[in-house]
Write a structure and sequence with these properties.
The complex is a heterodimer of chains A (298) and B (327).
Chain A (H helix, E strand, L loop, with lengths): L30 E12 L2 E12 L3 E5 L6 H8 L7 E6 L2 E2 L5 H7 L1 E3 L12 H8 L8 H4 L2 H21 L15 H14 L4 E5 L7 H16 L4 E5 L3 H7 L2 E6 L2 E6 L1 H5 L2 H12 L2 H12 L2
Parallel strand pairs in A: 3-8, 3-9, 6-7, 7-8
Antiparallel strand pairs in A: 1-2, 1-4, 4-5, 9-10
Chain B lengths: L1 H12 L2 H20 L6 H18 L4 H23 L4 H20 L4 H4 L5 E2 L3 H5 L7 E2 L5 E2 H25 L2 H11 L1 H6 L4 H27 L1 E2 L6 H14 L6 H25 L12 H19 L8 H5 L4
Antiparallel strand pairs in B: 1-4, 2-3
Helix pairs in contact in B: 1-13, 2-8, 2-9, 2-11, 2-12, 2-13, 3-4, 3-5, 3-11, 4-11, 8-11, 12-13, 13-14
The chains are: A alpha/beta (298), B mainly alpha (327).
Chain lengths: 298, 327
């Protein structure tokens, strides 16, 4: 596993998935997350129905699909915010099926939300400090004895300040998070997720509602997660330019299932993906056929 | 007559009942102000604290100190029973459960079948002796024109001392990393969860702590009145405590104290004023002796409405903070 080529220096110079066949559910050389038979339905609607999916370690995987394809539901299921009707999934070789959300985060898989969850009536700095794990002062009795946690608090604050500086938010440090703009909240949420020091970051529409200037800096930060910090990133996005720009691998969902996988170039030419997005003009039947074909290959 | 009314109002506002209500409001501040838990049954914790003392001493002959411990333990148990099924659900379920549980406790207490233990509708008395026996204050009349007895000064010192103690406790808790998690749950518990915080565990800690503070308020109440009756513990007591908290300012350390003082100053001042003017024949019958309680509450309600319109953050709340969009 460890013999895989890791990006050395220049980003995207060697994509370890270059030779992997672009089929739904294909095996990857070094998967960090492996999903098997995960299903979730709401009433009669099958929201998620994923037979098999592997996420490669240390890369940026883009998750695309039309509205209602089940992308966010899949995020919720993987991170313990929702419970599937069936299925198993492993993170770093250990099953995390049925593990509560806060323990999933502590194991190193941290997600952000489509509708940003800035903690409005706390300062930007407090938002950041909250993200640090293993804080002694979070225990009831220890919290009453500041000398016990003061040094750790200083370290956490230093780390938070460094991240805020990197995300160019240091000047807003003491502002309430509720005063930030939508784009700044997205940045804050991403920075806050990094305070957990996760191995894998799951970003749910990180660019939604962000102005173009900020989009560029957000993209830079996401690439930085991969290139500088060797973290795995999975992100949901609707803007295809963004997806094709930063993804090493793209997974496309439709009607709850994985209908295509591949490098951005392969996905751009994949007829199943085109149909999933433009299917309405071609009628419903072809999509279903493609889905059956897609599932048949796994 | 003005000074008499003023002294009446002050006597109540600095009295042990006001302190007991301040404790109820401090507990609610923990629940509602800091954690965002909607506890509409704080009076249930108060009842448990009051009856913990009264039943232990009057029914089972234990010492008053054992009674206090029993009251606190009963509050912990009540918080666990309420919290385990509801804290995983949405906030409104806790509200429904707590208001119902408080009423159930009151109805059980006043039930004829419970009479051998709780005294039924008649309640219990003669349990507070042990507390007044250890009064270190020499007999006399204190605080000049207020003319307080030594027993009164003793219960006032203890009750406001407890208010100070728990204010200090919450103040130091809320400036620690523990308090940071509590506040983050109020803001958005899913965000806290996504950052690896065990939200359920912290909500439970908050529910227990605020409930215990409410129970100690109940014990103070029982010691001050030296009698407990089930129908003292009506649901409106919880809403008085909420009014106190909002009047003073939620999520502030001083809010419950100032709120309790003002609330009881206004209530007692109004009542004393109305009674004295009515006795002097200076008021129409409409405000007469029969209606004093109702008129006072109407006036307090009006004041609260004006407060909500012109100063929604309360006396000490932060308006800017309050107006930040929540969720």
């Amino acid at each position: 596993m460890s013999s895989d080529p890791v990006d050395g220096g220049t980003p995207t110079s060697t994509n370890p998935l270059e030779g992997v066949s672009p089929e739904p559910g294909v095996a990857k050389p070094d998967p960090v997350l492996v999903i098997d038979g995960v299903r979730r339905s709401f009433g009669g609607v099958k929201a998620v129905d994923v037979d098999h999916l592997e996420i490669q370690r240390g890369l940026i995987t883009g998750l695309i699909g039309p509205n209602g394809a089940g992308k966010t539901t899949l995020f919720n299921l993987m991170t313990g915010f929702d419970t599937p009707d069936a299925g198993t999934w492993e993170f770093n070789g250990r099953s995390i099926a049925g593990v509560p959300a806060h323990l999933v985060a502590r194991r190193g898989m941290v997600r952000t939300f489509q509708l940003t969850k800035a903690l409005s009536r706390m300062t930007v700095l407090e938002n950041m400090q909250l993200g640090a794990t293993g804080q002694v002062g979070e225990r009831f009795l220890a919290s009453l004895l500041p000398p016990v946690w003061r040094k750790q608090e200083r370290d956490i604050t230093a780390r938070a300040d460094a991240l805020l500086e990197r995300f160019k938010m240091d000047h807003m440090r003491d502002q309430h998070a509720g005063t930030l703009s939508g784009g700044q909240r997205k940045l804050l949420e991403m920075a806050r997720a990094l305070m957990v020091e996760p191995e894998m970051v799951m970003l749910d529409e990180p660019m939604a509602g962000v102005n173009p200037a900020l989009t560029q800096s957000l993209l830079g930060h996401i690439k930085g997660l991969r290139d500088d910090e060797k973290r795995t990133v999975v992100f949901v996005e609707h803007d295809m330019d963004v997806v094709f720009d930063i993804s090493d691998w793209v997974v496309c969902m439709a009607e709850g299932a994985i209908i295509a996988e591949g490098t951005p170039a392969q996905i751009g030419q994949n007829p199943a993906v085109v149909e999933a997005y433009l299917g309405a003009t071609h009628g419903q039947a072809p999509i279903r056929r493609k889905r059956r074909e897609a599932k048949g290959t796994t | 007559m003005g000074t008499i009314i003023f002294f009446d109002a002050v006597r109540t506002a600095i009295g042990p009942t006001a302190a007991a209500y301040a404790l109820l409001a401090i507990g609610l501040n923990m629940h509602f102000g800091y954690t965002g838990l909607l506890n509409f049954g704080q009076v249930g914790f108060m009842l448990v604290g009051a009856y913990g003392v009264a039943i232990s001493v009057a029914t089972f002959g234990a010492s008053i100190w054992v009674g206090m411990v029993v009251g606190v333990l009963a509050a912990v148990l009540l918080a666990l029973i309420l919290g385990v099924p509801t804290l995983r659900l949405r906030a409104d379920y806790l509200a429904i459960t707590t208001i119902a549980a408080a009423e159930i406790l009151r109805l059980i207490t006043r039930n004829t079948g419970s009479e051998p233990v709780t005294g039924g509708v008649f309640g219990l008395r003669q349990y507070a002796g042990g507390f007044y026996d250890v009064n270190p204050i020499p007999p006399g009349s204190y605080l000049g024109p207020l003319g307080l007895s030594e027993g009164r000064v003793w219960i006032m010192a203890v009750s406001w001392g407890l208010v100070a103690l728990f204010t200090l406790l919450l103040w130091s808790l809320m400036r620690s990393p523990w308090g940071r998690i509590i506040k983050s749950i109020r803001e958005d518990e899913d965000a806290a969860r996504s950052l690896g915080k065990n939200v359920f565990y912290y909500k439970m800690q908050s529910l227990v702590l605020g409930g215990v503070i409410g129970a100690i308020g109940g014990a103070v109440f029982a010691l001050a009145l030296q009698t407990v009756q089930p129908d003292t513990f009506l649901p409106q007591v919880t809403f008085f405590a909420f009014a106190i908290l909002i009047l003073g300012g939620t999520a502030t350390w001083i809010g419950p104290i100032v709120g309790a003082f003002l609330f009881w100053f206004i209530i007692a001042g109004m009542q004393s004023g109305l009674r004295r003017f009515s006795d002097a024949g200076m008021l129409p019958d409409f405000f007469g002796s029969q209606a004093i309680g109702a008129v006072t509450l109407t006036f307090v309600g009006l004041l609260l409405m004006l407060l909500m319109i012109f100063r929604p953050q309360g006396m000490f709340g932060n308006k800017q903070e309050m107006q930040l969009d929540v969720k």
